[in-house]
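Severity: low
Component: inverse-folding endpoint
Summary: output formatting inconsistent between runs
Steps to reproduce: submit the following structure tokens with default settings.
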């Protein structure tokens, strides 16, 4: 069993090997870090392929063609559905989410185990205790976004307080399209993860800033960071993958440990890491520990 000092060294080794110290500093100070494609190693070709897979899946589920430039090729009808975060500001949703991305295609599984993303998540949550929670995407078009509140929330908001320094959830937002204020960028209050509390409105929205970054960037953030997004004002789509992580003590959004197809986990860039983060093989779901045998004299 590695002791605390060894575990700390291992964690720092991954950060140093990948040259992630500047991003770790930003995570510590601001609660988020923007990592460019040159550091994550995810090429723009890979980003375009992921985007096309999501647009194709959107077409399959919604029933009309989607392009980044022009958005949906038809009017979209949400029926009476009110978005969960949109309710904070009483606006109509102008996005949808696709879920369980890692079942769609190997490209999503490769992204889920991207070494840079995993090292940053492990830095915040703890290396041996980091697990997947869910793999989702946001397809967002021009509209009210999350309204005046900017939908500010903490991702670990469902975890009882008090919260500490260790992130109980942390998130990787992969920006598959350009993030500018007018394109509906991520919003956050830098340093708010250190307040260890929920955002208080309307002051929180006044403190928020847009996180603008080029297509392909990774926004890694702490589960206590106050964040949301600005409304999209331009034509076309903002496309984002949200790979959401958790501490092993926290329930997953998607029951990956029990329901994710094991054979798919073997088909990715790093099956060992995928399986460890998936949390397969939970003990206590079977007679995992031996029992002594009666000695018959
Ligand atoms: O850009 C957004 O809509 C915010 C995404 C978000 O809240 C999340 O991924 O946890
Ligand atoms: Fe969130």
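Observed output (run 2 of 3):
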């Amino acid at each position: 069993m590695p002791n605390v000092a060894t575990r700390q060294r291992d964690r720092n080794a991954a950060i140093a090997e990948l040259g992630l110290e500047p991003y770790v500093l930003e995570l510590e100070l601001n609660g988020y870090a923007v990592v460019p494609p040159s550091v994550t190693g995810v090429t723009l070709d890979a980003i375009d392929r992921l985007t096309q897979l999501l647009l194709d899946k959107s077409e399959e589920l919604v029933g009309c063609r989607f392009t980044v430039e022009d958005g949906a090729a038809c009017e979209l009808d949400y029926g009476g559905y009110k978005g969960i975060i949109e309710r904070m500001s009483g606006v109509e949703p102008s996005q949808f989410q696709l879920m369980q991305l890692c079942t769609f295609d190997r490209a999503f599984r490769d992204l889920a185990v991207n070494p840079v993303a995993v090292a940053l998540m492990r830095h915040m949550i703890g290396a041996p205790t980091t697990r997947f929670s869910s793999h989702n995407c946001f397809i967002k078009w021009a509209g009210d976004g999350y309204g005046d509140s900017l939908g500010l929330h903490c991702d670990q908001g469902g975890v009882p307080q008090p919260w500490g320094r260790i992130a109980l959830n942390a998130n990787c937002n992969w920006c598959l399209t350009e993030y500018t204020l007018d394109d509906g960028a991520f919003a956050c209050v830098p340093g708010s993860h250190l307040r260890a509390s929920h955002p208080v409105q309307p002051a929180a929205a006044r403190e928020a800033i847009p996180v603008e970054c080029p297509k392909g960037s990774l926004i890694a953030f702490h589960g206590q960071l106050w964040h949301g997004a600005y409304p999209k004002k331009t034509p076309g789509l903002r496309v984002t993958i949200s790979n959401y992580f958790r501490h092993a003590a926290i329930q997953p959004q998607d029951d990956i440990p029990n329901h994710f197809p094991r054979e798919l986990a073997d088909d990715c860039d790093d099956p060992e890491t995928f399986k460890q983060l998936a949390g397969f093989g939970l003990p206590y779901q079977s007679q995992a520990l031996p029992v002594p045998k009666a000695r018959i004299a």
